[in-house]
Predict the 3D structure of the following.
Amino acid sequence: MNFHSSAVVHLKNFHHNFRTISDYVGKGISIIPVIKADGYGHGMIRIARELQNYNNVAYLGVAHIKEGVILRKNGITQKILAMSCLDSFDVEMMDEFDITPVVHSLYLLKKVVDYAKTYNKQIHIHLKFDTGMARLGIRKEDVEESVALCKKEKNYVAVDGIMSHFSDSESDDAWTLEQNKKFSQIIKFIEEEGFSPRYKHIANSGGVLKHKETHHNCIRPGLILYGYTPSNNLQKAIDLKPVLEIKSQLISIHSLKKGEGISYGRTFKAPYDMKIGVVAFGYADGLFRNLSNKMECLINGKRCKNVGTICMDMFMCDLTDVEASVSDIATIVGKDGNESITIDDLAYLSSTINYEILTNIGKSIRVNRLYAD
């Protein structure tokens, strides 16, 4: 038998989430679905195709030029916004593949102008301003010079959008509103300088759910598209459904005598005679090794505790009180009977965030991605 692991992407749930978000923000708000990092592990190309018939999608949001090029080479014709443009080479590639760059520094803006002048064309851009994230964004001291340059070189750069990014939208309301105030002031300044950017966006998933006043006329949801929220206190804010399930199989069942150790380092020793199952899924498939002796999986509707150190290709679980056979399905994320395990559960046990769990599991080339519904 050919044992394998599968990431099951429930497209019906994805569409439910997108429509729920659209209804929540209301008409007149454009959406830039963030599908970077291979669609947060769900498959960027397929997710892009699923979004192609929504009229309120302004752009598909990616991080790097490579992601945009992959979409174009796979027949995606929607507008693409690349949020981490780095240098003049990226500008050239984005021009070639019709990808809109986010210009996040005065230095980069000058590079875009130089490129546009060299080829005597106009490049459409979004300007990104730093309002407190202190990562990427035109700094306060460069705002006036950057806007003046765009005004002077309007034949070479067209400002289609302006944006910023929240640093703590899910938990610090006062700081989030302060960032939004700064962004609103920048919007006012730019419009007073004669610009009319079509899209104004700062709200990420946290901003979307907690602060409607930050929606302006465009939002950038990421995590919530895939059924999760950036903090537990937002889980009831909107009706979301997890899109991803992770399943594998039992590949061996054996006995472990009381006192015997198991796996590398023998970090678990049997307190009594046990029945052990071996599941074909390990840290090379995206599990974090620090989940060892903490996580559970679901087999035939029963919760089965991991025992011993998680290995590169497999982990062991306690089947002592479970009826199971080799080749039975092991659910690592998802539902089985009345039991369920979520990405949030794994994130909590490994002391990280749900974003990291999703993207880590999703990037494994050994996990067979299947699309359902």
